[in-house]
Amino acid sequence: MRKTTLAFLAILAVSLTACKHLCRCDLEYSNVCNSKNPPIVCIDSDSLAPSQNPVHIKGGDTAHFYVTSGHGSLTITCEPGTPVEYIGHDGGHAWVRTLPVKEAKKYKYTINVDGHINDPDMVIEP
Q1: Are 96 and 84 in contact (CB under 8 A)?
Q2: Which of 13, 53, 111, 120 holds its CA 20 to 30 A away from the CA of 40?
Q3: E strands of 1-126, at which residues?
Q4: Longest dimension (CA), the chain
Q5: What is the pLDDT of residues 6-43, one digit of tens each?
C-alpha cells in the first residue's frame, strides 16, 4: 500500500511539472486570457501587449499574467504607491496580489519579458 501511494505521488509530481512547462495561455484556443475573476492576462511575446488594458483587479484579489509563447522570463513591477501586497513570478508566469481599496484608481505597471518593457495600466477597484 505504501509503495503504491508513493508511486502515485511520484507520477502526480512528474505530471504537474510537465504541465507547468508545456501548458501555455493561448489566445486561439481559449477565453482564459480575458477572464475577469480572477483576472488572467496574457502578454503577447512579440509586442508585449496585454490581453486586457487596463486590467481591472478587485482589491484583495490576485491577477495572473502569462507570456503567450510560454517562453521568456516575465516580471511585473508596479509604480510606487500602488496598493499591492506582493508580486511574484516564475518563468513566463507572474502574479500580483492587491490590497483592499476604498475607491477605484488607475495605476501604471511594467511588463518586462527578458529585458523588453511595456507600461500598460491596471485599475484596482473596491
Answers
A1: yes
A2: 13
A3: 40-43, 55-58, 62-67, 74-78, 84-90, 93-98, 105-113, 116-118, 121-125
A4: 56
A5: 444 445 444 444 444 434 444 443 457 877 788 999 99
